[in-house]
Amino acid sequence: MIFMNMAYTTHKRRRGFALITSMLVVCVFIVLALPYVARLVTEYWLISKIYNSTSALYVAEAGADRALWEIRYNQCEFDGWTTEPGGDKIISVNSFQTSDGKTMGDYDVRVSISMDGMSAVVTATGYTPNRTDPDGKRTVKVRYSRHNFGKAVVALGGITMSGQAKTDSYDSNLGPYGSQPHTQEGDIITNGSISMSGQAYINGDAHPGPGHPFSGTPPVSGSYGTLQAPFTVDPIPASTLSEAQSNNNNDNILLDGQLWGGGYSLSASGQQVFTFPGGTYYFTSISTSGQAQINITGPSTIYVDGGNVSISGQGIVNGARPRDLLLYSSGSSISLSGQAAFTGAVYAPNANVTLSGQENVYGSIICGSNSDSGQAKIHFDLDLLNVQPVFANSRVTSWQEIEE
Questions:
Q1: Helix spans in 131-274 (H)
Q2: Quick one: which H or E segment has residue 58?
Q3: pTM of the model
Q4: pLDDT per residue as tens digits for the range 219-276
Q5: 119 and 249 inside one domain
Q6: Can you say how many angstroms the Cα of residue 364 is from the centroid of all Cα atoms in its chain?
Q7: Could you tell me if 342 and 360 are in contact, meaning their C-beta atoms sit under 8 angstroms apart?
């Protein structure tokens, strides 16, 4: 009996010792595991924050890309966006999804386009997982510079309109000017003054340069007011003119059905008819008079290096769209007074461009200064918003993250 009690007592002691040992082992494990678990939790939290922060940046950049698409390819229509009193365009998107359907977060975008339309600032903020409880919030600011034939007239020095001169707009994608309702986007801007007299009228916006306000209410259908700062127009690079001189299609020009071969100075008079098949052409001056005509039969780019352009008589005839005739001039004077309409875009940052008589321009003019009189009219083609000068690119000038 004594032996049995001793055995039972020894067994209980062993069990107690095993229990205590097990508890000690568990305590040691917990002590050792706690830092590891804490580390795992911290790392998970950090990884989650990094993921959400990175995702928020991607969402913000997606919003910025959407705004740039509106500017580049949708002609600044901003369909579905809200316009604030100051003119800024804004949009808020919840539950933005990737192309494979994954929800990333929310974003807010604001677009500020300069009064002259030459630049834009896009501010986009991304929130992940959402704007009400964001683990990540990132903001990017993008500055964009626009280079295109974007208005009826862009003049560095000043614009004068008298008589029955006017501007309006149409879209050659929808057909010729006479086949569609005319729109009121015949905008004009200048670093100088805008002088209007007679029955001159702007169907669009009109913005003179800083320090050159209108006196009274101008005959303008849209907005008007001085620019906040002067704009710049890039000169035609000497390398572009040199390349046109070295590589051009002047040898393909026909005079009354025969190859012309007349060099770089083109002077047409009488009833001469010059025919330009599509291509690139280089001259030091161009003049037409009488019943003479330059007939453009294919998409053409014409460079005039240093000399003047004087078009009268039957003028330059382009039966296609304005985008199919781009006239670049580094000279100081362009005069359009022909009986035939000029259909094309003019880029002449040093020139005084003069329209007189019944001259009609279908397209756009970028120049040093502009003077329109008589019944001269400029019909801006909205399709030219998609056309850039051959040596200038619309581009993002900065893309950076900012702190808010």
A1: 238-246
A2: helix 2-72
A3: 0.79
A4: 999 999 999 889 989 999 999 999 999 999 999 999 999 999 989 999 999 999 999 9
A5: no
A6: 16
A7: yes
